[in-house]
Write a structure and sequence with these properties.
Oligomer: heterodimer
Largest interface: A-B, 45 and 68 residues
Strand content of chain B: 25-35%
Distance between the termini of chain A: 42 Å
Radius of gyration of chain A: 33 Å
Strand content of chain A: 15-25%
Shape of chain B: elongated
Structural class of chain B: alpha/beta
Structural class of chain A: alpha+beta
Helix content of chain B: 25-40%
Chain lengths: ~675, ~325
C-alpha cells in the first residue's frame, strides 16, 4: 500500500505542483487587487475597496473552475497513465486486493488535490480572517461556499476517473460521468447550504462508488460489487438526463418550429395617467396602442409614436417586491445569502449593512477593523447582536438608500452624522413588509411603504402623501409599482400578481391600477390580461421536463426551496414516460436473460429514472452476442452455458481431422 | 496420485462483440511443466492469458489457477504467480533500483540473490531509468522482478517479443536456469518456434480461438510428418486425405505434410500409384509452420515461359 501511494504521488506530483502554482498566482492577484483598492480608497477613491475578497464572486468562480479542472486532471491521469500499454495488467497483478490499490490511488490523488487546492486557499483564507487585513464583515459561514467549490474538485476527480476506467459499449457513453459532475456541481448555486452539501457529497459518494466498482472489473459492468452497480447506473442516468435535456433544447432551438410571430407586450403609463399597451415584435416596429387598440399618434405629425418618443412621454415608475416574513414562508437562515452589502464610504470609514446584526457597521480603512455600528437606536461603538436592529431578514439585504426600516417605522439614515432619525411610523404599528426610496434624478423625494393592510407614500420630510388599501390583493399581488404623474401631486399605484400565484392559478392574472390625486383615490381598474404563454414552462421546457426522472422532479421543490416547481400538470406525462420505459427494460432483460433480481431492480430503477434510466441501462450493460442454437435454431445468448430455449449445451467446434490431443501428465 | 493441474479450464470462452476470441477452451497445464501456448496473431493467446489472470472476465466457462477460481484470484494466489506482460511493461520513470524496490515491497519472500543474479547477467545499471533501457535490458529486468518473489507459476506473454537473438538467448537461459531447478511451472506464449523447441515440454496450439493441439512436444513431432511420393509423370490429382496439412506439387513428385501418417492414410496414398513413397525428415519449426499456416495444396511446376526465364515459382 505504501509503495503504491508513493508511486502515485510521484506520478502526480508535477500536475499537482503546477496546479498549486496556478491557484496561488490567482489568489495572489486577488490579494494585490484588494490592496490596490484599499490604497485607492485611502487616496479618496469612491469605495473601490468596499468588499471582502473572501465573499467575492471572483474568488468563488476561480475556486470553482480551478478545483473542477485540477480534480478532473488528477483523476484522469491516475487511470490514463496505466491504460497506456499494458501497465494496467502489471499494476492489478500486485498481490494486494483491488480495493487496496484503489484506496492507494485515492489516498495519493485526493491527498495531492487537497494539498494543491487546499493549501493556497487555506493561506488566503487565513490571511482574510485575521483581523486587520480586510476592512469588511466576516462570518465563518462565508467560508461554506468556498468549501463547496473546493469539494467540487472531488466530484470531478471521481468523474474523470470513471471516464478513464469505463469500457463503454457506446463510445460517447464513456463520457457520461462528466455531465453528471456538471449537474452535481451546479448544486453550488442552490439556495440552501444543507442541500448544496448534500448534493455535492452524494455526488462524491456515488461517483466514488462507481469508480471503485469499475476499478474492480477493469471498467466493465459485469462482475462489479453489489453497491457499485446501482451507483454506476445512477451516475450514468444523471449524465444521460443532462445530455438528453440539452439535446432536446438544442433540437427545438435549431430544428423546431419557427418563432417568427413571437412578440412581447406590457402595459405602461403616460405622464397624464393614460395606460398604453406596448408591443415589441421581432420583425415589426414596436406598437403603442391604448386600451381600445388605437395607436398613440404624435399630436403634431399624426404619425405613430416611436419607442424613443414614448420613453420621453411615459411616467417615471418605481417597483418594489413585498416580502413580509411569515413562519410558513420564512427564508431559511442557512441560505447562502449576500453576507453584507457595502453601504457607503466616508473619509476613513467603510460602511456595510450586515444582516447578522441588521445594522450598518463601520470599518476603519487604516486599521481595517470595525469601529462601531448604526442602528435604530443610533451609533454605538463595538458590535453586539443585542443592539436594536433594522428589519431585514438574511438574504434580503437592502441597497444603499436614504432610509432603513424597523418594525412599523422607517428611519432616515445620515451616515456622515452617524445618526438614524425616525421618519415615519405606520398606523397601529402595522409592520412594514417593503420599502422603496423614490429618488428621481438623484433627489430623494418619497419613500413608498407596504404593510399587509396598506401601501403608503411618505415624503422625504416624513409627511404622509397618501395611503391606499392593500387588501384583498395581499399576498397574491406582491409587486408594487408607484408611478409619478403630471401634475406633480398625481400618482398611479400598480399591483401585479406574484409568479407563485399565477403558477398556482394556472393563468395570467390581471394587473390592478389605482389613480391617486394628492391623498385621494380617483379611480381603480383591472387591466385586461395580456396575450402570451400561460405562466409556467414553455413547450421546450415541458418537452425537456419529460426527460427528467420523476424521482428527481419530485424532490425539486424541496431542493430549490420553491413550491412552485411541483409541475402538477406534467406529472402524468413524466410518470407515463417512466412507465413506458419499464416494459422496454423488461423486454431487454428477458431478451438478454437477466436474472430475476436484476430484472426487478432495473424495473424499479426505470420507474424512478424514466428515459435517462433507460439510456443508462443501454449504456451500462455489456450486451452479449446472440447466435443461433444448433439444436433448436433459436437465437441464444452466448453468456449462458446452455441454450435458454432448449437447454442444449454449447458444443466444441467440429474437428478438422488435424487435431492432436494427449492426456496431460507431469513432465518426465 | 498425480498432482492436479496448475491451470485448468473448462469451456473457457470470450466474445468481443459477436466474435469469439477464445472458444470452448479446455486446457490442463501439468505442474512442473514448461508449457508453450502457440498460435498466429489474433488467435486468442493473450486473451486466454488475461482470462487466466483474472484481468478479463470470461463470457462463459470456468477455470482455476493454482486451485483458485480465475474470476476471483486472491492476493495470495497472485503472490504465487509471476506474470511477465507483453512488451515488458514497467514504470518508465523509475530507475532500475526504484523499480526493484517498488516490486519487492509486495512480496515478503523476495529473493534478492536471484534478482541481482539476473540483473548482473543483463549488466543493468541500478541508476539507469527504465525508459532508457533497451528492449533486451527491460526484458531482463522484468524477468528478474518476476522470478525474485519465487513464484510457483510463471505466466509469460510472448517474453521474447522484439528481442535480438542475444537478448533472447539470455532471457531463455535465465528463465530455464532458475525454473528448472525448483520445478516451477512455466506457461508462455510465443511466436518463436526455435525457443519453443528449446524449452517446452508441452504445447497447445490455438487457431482462431479454438484449441486444435494440446500435447507433449514429442507427440507433436511424431504426429506431424512429411512424405514424398515420386511418380513417372505428372502426379495425379490428390484425393481427400485425412489429416493433410499441406501438399506441394512438383513435376514428378508430391510432398505431403500430414498429421498422423497411419496405415489408412498410407493405403490411400499408395492408391495414387507412386513409384516410391518415402518419409522425409521434418524440422519442428517447419512442422509448426505447416500446422499453423494455410492448409491445402500448392503447385511448384514450371511452365515453358518460366523455365526459359529462369523463373521458378508458380502457385
Amino acid at each position: 500500500m505504501k509503495a503504491l501511494i508513493q508511486k502515485e504521488l510521484r506520478e502526480l506530483v508535477k500536475a499537482a505542483v503546477l496546479g498549486l502554482v496556478i491557484l496561488a498566482l490567482f489568489l495572489l492577484q486577488d490579494y494585490h487587487a484588494y490592496a490596490r483598492a484599499m490604497r485607492e480608497l485611502a487616496l479618496g477613491g469612491a469605495g473601490a475597496g468596499a468588499y471582502s475578497p473572501l465573499a467575492e464572486g471572483g474568488l468563488l468562480k476561480e475556486t470553482f473552475y480551478f478545483c473542477a479542472i485540477l480534480g478532473a486532471v488528477l483523476g484522469w491521469l491516475q487511470i490514463h497513465n496505466e491504460r497506456r500499454g499494458d501497465l494496467w495488467s502489471f499494476l492489478v497483478h500486485r498481490p494486494v486486493t483491488r480495493t487496496q490499490i484503489f484506496l492507494a490511488k485515492i489516498a495519493a490523488g485526493a491527498g495531492l488535490y487537497v494539498l494543491a487546492a487546499g493549501a493556497p486557499l487555506a493561506a488566503f483564507i487565513l490571511w482574510g480572517i485575521i483581523p486587520g487585513h480586510i476592512a469588511a464583515p466576516f462570518e465563518w459561514a462565508m467560508l461554506l461556499p468556498i468549501l463547496a467549490r473546493f469539494l467540487v474538485g472531488l466530484v470531478y476527480y471521481f468523474a474523470a476517473m470513471l471516464v478513464g476506467l469505463r469500457q463503454a459499449r457506446w463510445y460517447a457513453s464513456r463520457g457520461l460521468p462528466l455531465p453528471t459532475a456538471i449537474l452535481v456541481c451546479a448544486a453550488t448555486n442552490l439556495p440552501s447550504f444543507p442541500w448544496m452539501f448534500t448534493a455535492i457529497l452524494a455526488g462524491i459518494v456515488v461517483l466514488g462508488l462507481a469508480a471503485w466498482g469499475s476499478f474492480h472489473t477493469n471498467g466493465f459492468y459485469q462482475g462489479q460489487p453489489g453497491a457499485s452497480k446501482p451507483a454506476l447506473a445512477l451516475a450514468l442516468a444523471v449524465g444521460a438526463m443532462v445530455v438528453a435535456v440539452a439535446a432536446c433544447v438544442l433540437a427545438v432551438q435549431f430544428v423546431g418550429p419557427g418563432d417568427n410571430d413571437s412578440s412581447t407586450s406590457y402595459y405602461d403609463i403616460r405622464k397624464d395617467g393614460t395606460i398604453y399597451r406596448v408591443t415589441h415584435s421581432r420583425f415589426r416596429p414596436a406598437q403603442i396602442v391604448d386600451l381600445d387598440g388605437n395607436p398613440l399618434k404624435d399630436a403634431k405629425t399624426g404619425e405613430p409614436v416611436t419607442p424613443q418618443e414614448w420613453y420621453r412621454l411615459h411616467a417615471r415608475a418605481f417597483n418594489m417586491d413585498v416580502y413580509i416574513p411569515e413562519p410558513a414562508r420564512a427564508r431559511p437562515a442557512h441560505a447562502p445569502a449576500p453576507w453584507f452589502r457595502c453601504w457607503q464610504a466616508t473619509p476613513g470609514t467603510l460602511w456595510y449593512f450586515w444582516p447578522r446584526y441588521a445594522r450598518l457597521v463601520a470599518f476603519d480603512t487604516s486599521s481595517r477593523r470595525p469601529i462601531g455600528s448604526l442602528g435604530p437606536d443610533g451609533f454605538s461603538s463595538g458590535l453586539s447582536e443585542r443592539g436594536a436592529r433594522f428589519d431585514y431578514p438574511p438574504g434580503d439585504v437592502p441597497w444603499a438608500s436614504p432610509t432603513l426600516r424597523a418594525g412599523a417605522s422607517v428611519y432616515q439614515v445620515q451616515i456622515e452624522k452617524r445618526a438614524a432619525t425616525l421618519l415615519f411610523t405606520t398606523d397601529a404599528g402595522d409592520p412594514i413588509g417593503a420599502s422603496l426610496d423614490i429618488v428621481p434624478d438623484y433627489d430623494w423625494k418619497y419613500t413608498a411603504l407596504a404593510t399587509r393592510k396598506f401601501v403608503y407614500l411618505v415624503s422625504s420630510d416624513g409627511k404622509l402623501v397618501w395611503k391606499s388599501p392593500y387588501q384583498p390583493a395581499y399576498p397574491d399581488y406582491d409587486e408594487i409599482r408607484v408611478c409619478l404623474l403630471d401634475p406633480p401631486d398625481q400618482y398611479a399605484l400598480w399591483l401585479s400578481a406574484s409568479r407563485r400565484f399565477e403558477l398556482q392559478s394556472g393563468r395570467k392574472e390581471p394587473p390592478q391600477v389605482t389613480w391617486l390625486s394628492g391623498a385621494r383615490s380617483i379611480k381603480s381598474m383591472q387591466l385586461p390580461v395580456l396575450p402570451g404563454n400561460p405562466p409556467g414552462l414553455d413547450p421546450t421546457g415541458k418537452a425537456a421536463l419529460l426527460l427528467v426522472p420523476p424521482g428527481l422532479a419530485a424532490m425539486m421543490p424541496y431542493i430549490m426551496d420553491d413550491p412552485a416547481l411541483t409541475h402538477e400538470r406534467l406529472w402524468p406525462y413524466m410518470v407515463l414516460a417512466a412507465l413506458l420505459c419499464v416494459p422496454v427494460g423488461w423486454w431487454l432483460g428477458r431478451r438478454y436473460r437477466f436474472d430475476s433480481r436484476s430484472q426487478v431492480g432495473w424495473a424499479v430503477f426505470l420507474l424512478l429514472f424514466g428515459v435517462p434510466g433507460l439510456l443508462a441501462l443501454l449504456s451500462v450493460q455489456e450486451w452479449p452476442a446472440r447466435e443461433p442454437c444448433p439444436n433448436c435454431q433459436r437465437p441464444r445468448v452466448v453468456t449462458r452455458a446452455r441454450c435458454e430455449h432448449c437447454g442444449a449445451a454449447f458444443q466444441p467446434r467440429a474437428p478438422h481431422g488435424i487435431e492432436i490431443f494427449e492426456p496431460m501428465s507431469a513432465p518426465r | 496420485m498425480s498432482d492436479p493441474p496448475v491451470i485448468q479450464t473448462r469451456g473457457l470462452t470470450r466474445y468481443f462483440g459477436a466474435k469469439p476470441a477464445v472458444y470452448e477452451l479446455d486446457l490442463a497445464v501439468p505442474r512442473g511443466s514448461v508449457f508453450a501456448f502457440l498460435g498466429r496473431n489474433g488467435s486468442g493467446k493473450t486473451t486466454t492469458i488475461r482470462m487466466l489472470l483474472g484481468l478479463l472476465e470470461p463470457t462463459r466457462g470456468s477455470g482455476a489457477v493454482l486451485g483458485y477460481d480465475l474470476c476471483a484470484l486472491p492476493p495470495e494466489a497472485r503472490a504465487r504467480i509471476g506474470y511477465l506482460t507483453e512488451d515488458h511493461q514497467l514504470y518508465g520513470w523509475m530507475s532500475v533500483r526504484q523499480s526493484c524496490e517498488f516490486q519487492s515491497q509486495f512480496y515478503p519472500r523476495w529473493n534478492g540473490r536471484v534478482l541481482n543474479g539476473i540483473i548482473d547477467h543483463f549488466a543493468l545499471k541500478p541508476e539507469a531509468r527504465v525508459k532508457d533501457l533497451s528492449r533486451g535490458e527491460r526484458a531482463g529486468l522484468c524477468l528478474a522482478q518476476t522470478l525474485a518473489p519465487g513464484p510457483e507459476l510463471l505466466i509469460l506473454d510472448d517474453p521474447a517479443l522484439g528481442l535480438d537473438p542475444v537478448a533472447r538467448r539470455s532471457l531463455l537461459e535465465s528463465m530455464l536456469y532458475l525454473t528448472r531447478r525448483s520445478a516451477r511451472t512455466i506457461f508462455f506464449s510465443s511466436h518463436n518456434l526455435a525457443d519453443v523447441e528449446r524449452v517446452a515440454d508441452y504445447i497447445a496450439v490455438l487457431d482462431r480461438g479454438v484449441l486444435c493441439a494440446c500435447c507433449t512436444l514429442e507427440m507433436f513431432r511424431n504426429s506431424v510428418r512429411q512424405v514424398r511420393l515420386r511418380f513417372a509423370g505428372a502426379p495425379p490429382p490428390l484425393p481427400k486425405v485425412p489429416g493433410l496439412l499441406q501438399a506441394f506439387r512438383y513435376e514428378h513428385e508430391l510432398r505431403l505434410i500430414l498429421v498422423r501418417l497411419n496405415g489408412e492414410v498410407e493405403q490411400a496414398l499408395r492408391a495414387l500409384g507412386p513409384l516410391e513413397m518415402e518419409p522425409l525428415p521434418l524440422p519442428l519449426e517447419d512442422a509448426f509452420l505447416s500446422y499453423l499456416g494455410e492448409h491445402g495444396e500448392r503447385s511448384f511446376i514450371l511452365d515453358e515461359a518460366d523455365r526459359d526465364a529462369g523463373e521458378v515459382l508458380k502457385e
